[in-house]
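Sample pair:
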Amino acid sequence: MSQTIPVAGVKPVAQRGKQMFPLAKIIVFILLGILLVTQLYPLLWLLIYSLKNNEEILSGSFFSLPSKLMWSNYTDAIASGNYFKYLLNSLITTTSTMVLVLLLSSLVSFAISRFRWKYGQLVMVLFLIGMMIPMQATLLPLMLIFKEMKILNTLWSLILPYVAFQTPIAVFIMSGFMKSIPHEIEESAVVDGANVLRIFWSVIIPVSIPPMMTVCILTFINIWNEYILAATFISKEALKTLPFGVNSFVSQYSVNYGAIGAYLVLGALPVIVIYFLLADKITKGMVAGAVKG
């Protein structure tokens, strides 16, 4: 009859796994904690910064709390920075861009991923090349083109290039998701008598809501605080967007740093709110577009 002889210094696998798991868990929590601090600290610092006066800001005590909460910085930011007028222009520009990007990218992605034609991959490569073109390299050509089109110094001079630069990444995300949709769904719709547009609108679009939400958020974040194109193509005071408001607090002899911080908080607030409201949609859309495609 055989007997099991224990070997000194060797622990069972299950016991070793139980000892290693808490260590791995601690390392993961430490890494997540570092990531949380690095992401939240700038926002917290900006909030504290916006509640200080100029003396406290210029004193060099970056980590100190304000001795008195300067809520007047926010009233100055709204009144002197033309916040609501610039906010309206930013909303019009961003909303128009998102609608056009969703419309164009969904149609292109549908054609690339669902149709069988030999130039589909070539069109996809062209859109991928568009992702590599830096925005700064197009400033002078776009200015000349918009001047000839008589749309320079209008909101269209912002919307059109925004759509052009946001559409490639939107096509990349949505086409990757649409390729994963079973073709049997379309075949059933064809049997029921649906045409191509009906299939696109009633079958493909409802299924593609997660990547569409991802495209909306990425477009919103990229466009909301864009300054280079807006500063190049817009000079009318009535058409300026939200990033221009910071210049209202800088004069020849003085700078209202507290109001600048308050204005930056107000400018970042819509992005933060929308992101947290649609965070789960972003995750689902990115995973669907990356993994299933």
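The mean pLDDT is 83.
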